[in-house]
Specification:
The protein is of the alpha+beta class. The protein has helices spanning 3-28, 33-58, and strands spanning 73-78, 84-88, 91-97, 109-116, 119-126.
């Protein structure tokens, strides 16, 4: 479903309430039909005019939860043989290499490729953390 379709779908209940209120005004206060149609048209036009400003609120492309970690870098804290722990954004995550191969030792820099439940699938980016400057 597109963002525009989602926005229009959320407008339908408001339009139904508008119709009910206008019908009541026509019944109780003798509002002419042409006035009710004009008011309803203005309310619909208002929704189309406001769409560009409100579109961002209806977009669902934002990643949340564990999906936001895909593509992020981390460091192996406990050897991945086949599972262990990596540190990503200051948080420890259980992880395993995405491809079968030799275990990844502590200190290896990794990139998050995917996830299975709460288990990160990672691949090595560098073999080890570079040592600090000589003392």
């Amino acid at each position: 479903m597109t963002t525009f379709q989602r926005y229009m779908l959320f407008q339908v209940p408001g339009w139904l309430i508008d119709i009910a209120v206008l019908a009541a005004l026509m019944e109780w206060w003798d509002l002419p039909l042409w006035s009710a149609i004009g008011i309803f048209t203005l309310l619909i036009v208002k929704d189309f005019v406001l769409y560009p400003m409100l579109r961002v609120g209806y977009e669902t492309q934002e990643k949340s939860g564990i999906a936001r970690l895909i593509g992020e870098r981390g460091v192996v804290k406990q050897r991945l043989d086949p599972q262990g722990y990596v540190l990503v954004h200051g948080e420890l995550w259980k992880a395993r290499p995405c491809e079968p191969g030799p275990p990844l030792d502590a200190g290896v820099r990794v990139s998050v490729v995917s996830f299975e439940g709460m288990l990160l699938l990672v691949e090595a980016v560098e073999s080890r953390l570079s040592p600090g400057p000589p003392a």
